[in-house]
Amino acid sequence: MPKGIRILHISIGERNVTHFGGIFLVHQFCKKLRLKWHLQKKVLFHQRSSLYHPVELILAIIYALIAGIHRLNKTKILQGNGAFQQIVGLKNYPYSSSLRRFLKRVNPKTIQGINKVHDYLRLKMFYLPKPRTSLLFDFDSSVLTLYGKFIEGAEIGYNPRKRGARSYHPLLCFESHSRDFWHGILRPGNVYTSTGSVEFLKICLDKLPPYLYRIRLRADSGFFDHKFIELLEEANIGYCIVAKMTPPIKNKVWGLHYHRFKKDWAAAEFLYQPYRWKKPHRFVVIRRPLPEKDSEQLTLFTLKRYAYQVFVTNLPLKAEKVWYFYKPRATIEVLIRELKESYALGRIPTNNFHANQAYFSLLLFAYNIVNWFKRLCLPPRFQNAALETIRTEFLVLPARLVKTDNRNILKLPAEYISKQTLEHIIQKIEKIKSL
């Protein structure tokens, strides 16, 4: 059995090593996006640090989020990471206090500039790798539990896991086919899901690319609101939204004629005009037998031996097809969980609401950069992989940066990534036209 080294001498001061060697792939991709150039053109920030340009601070936060640094005070690991700094084009990685101070000085115009760059790049990415003519929105809200004291906007609201805890309650929209983040807003924890949903939808529609022949939307019961649905119909958007189980709808469900469509599952439909709605709408009911232990939480409404879920929809589909259309919406819950766990959405960096809004925008920008990188550059088996998998396979790689004959060489161990895979990714990046 081999023994470890008996006598080991330690030398401290090596500057050209990193365990984020694969970050050069993301950086090369960002250069194709001309991310730094676009941010310099659009982001307005008048209070400049003597050490860092505002765009350098923005990129420092984005790269840290992608690398897996979940808290600003943990970015210290990147300050002595000389190879990382050289790879991403930073003279020195900023102190966490500099990053936090920058976020607190951010104003709404700065956030607006960041979002403009994000929107521009997302529009360009929408048509890659091939043109598309349809779009499917998934809407949802989430609860971000907050543990610090005196955090602006932290209010007590609906929080099923931490009852009575203060939280934020953001609204989020994703495009289902590409998994791109589309739009999001950070809100205090005591607002309802439907609060501001109409304005939120209008912003999502303002960001639509041209030449779409079909737009559809899926949402849960938090968006069951007549003004929200009226706007969808005015915009000629197909929708499927979970209905709230009001007493009139419960009464309708009881007396319907159901037809079976799989095993013991059955479907039915009816026309109904809820109070304050302008006209009758089509409602689809899905009935299924209650299992002994119901962990799926299909609906809160049960009657005798059955559980029911009701949708309001204008889609020209059979009743059971409406359910099949809605079912994949569960993916958005997976994406939100990834935002919380892998991108640290649940770890709010400051007690200032505007600073947290800025961080929220940068975090979602980082998510989309990784999503575009996966879609355009990685082998097919990794294009739907979670960020933790991407980090393990491609980003968290021990590396040494050396300079030989005026050539910068990044040395990677063969055991971590194959040369063939690495060349495949680099070729994919090189084929992308600069934006």
From TrEMBL:
<dbReference type="InterPro" id="IPR047960">
    <property type="entry name" value="Transpos_IS1380"/>
</dbReference>
<dbReference type="InterPro" id="IPR025668">
    <property type="entry name" value="Tnp_DDE_dom"/>
</dbReference>
<protein>
    <recommendedName>
        <fullName>Transposase DDE domain-containing protein</fullName>
    </recommendedName>
</protein>
<feature type="domain" description="Transposase DDE">
    <location>
        <begin position="15"/>
        <end position="433"/>
    </location>
</feature>
<dbReference type="Pfam" id="PF13701">
    <property type="entry name" value="DDE_Tnp_1_4"/>
</dbReference>
<dbReference type="InterPro" id="IPR012337">
    <property type="entry name" value="RNaseH-like_sf"/>
</dbReference>
